Amino acid sequence: MRFDILTLFPELIEAVLKESIIGRARENKIIDIHTHNIRDYSRDRHRRVDDTPYGGGMGMLMGAEPIYDCFKALEKELGKKPYLVYASPQGKVFCEDDAKRLSQKESIAVLCGHYEGIDRRIVDLIVDEEISIGDYILTGGEIPACVIVDATSRLLPGVLSDSECYEKESIYRGILEEPQYTRPAEFMGLKVPEVLLSGNHEKIEKWRKEAALELTRKNRPDLL
Q: What is the pTM of this model?
């Protein structure tokens, strides 16, 4: 699967997505990630990509031209229009179902805004979907883009060692994952639940289901 990130800070994207599981998936050619510097498509001699918004207001707005030209260059390179996601606080809040849906696509492009956002005409002309990663404001769309790529990539065959690695995790099943423990069996006076040491797989599975539901009721009752 191919991801194309349109950004003013390609180094930030690469710093995050070259490591760990995603980095190995890239090395193994399971996913392909390309960054495209929007500033390279500025028509300003100083490579400016922002301007003051019409009607006044605080901050600067990314202009339509360099974003549009960057996307069209990508479209020409691919020979088709990629599915374009705009990482925006105005979008639908990203969830696991969105990651599953996006993982079925052949290629995805993610547009990272900055400053006060982007000229709305870009959304109207080329954006297929706006996605937010939460109800808060960040300085740019690079971190959300990394979140979207990471969450989507790990659902692709071969990225994780087995589908069970994500199918039993929190959120994927619609509830949180049960509490988990490792050695030592006692730490700071706190002991691992006896059932997990019993070797009785039927009892362990029953405990895990009950513990997962209890944790969900406590921390995320909205999921139930």
A: 0.89
pLDDT in tens, 99-140: 999 999 999 999 999 989 999 999 999 999 999 999 999 999
Q: Dihedral of the CA atoms 153, 156, 158, 163 (nearest 10)?
A: 110
What is the distance between the alpha carbons of residues 112 and 181, in angstroms, rounded to a whole number? 38
Kind and range of the H or E element at 61?
strand 61-62
Strand order in the sheet with 107-112: 32-37, 2-7, 107-112, 83-93, 129-132
Alpha carbon distance 177, 211 (integer Å): 8
What is the token pair recorded at 194? 């006896």
Beta bridge partners of 51: 61
Q: Which CATH class is domain 2-153?
A: alpha beta
Question: CATH homologous superfamily of domain 168-223?
Answer: tRNA(m1g37)methyltransferase, domain 2 (1.10.1270.20)
SS3 154: coil
Q: Which two tokens stand for residue 95?
A: 């969830």
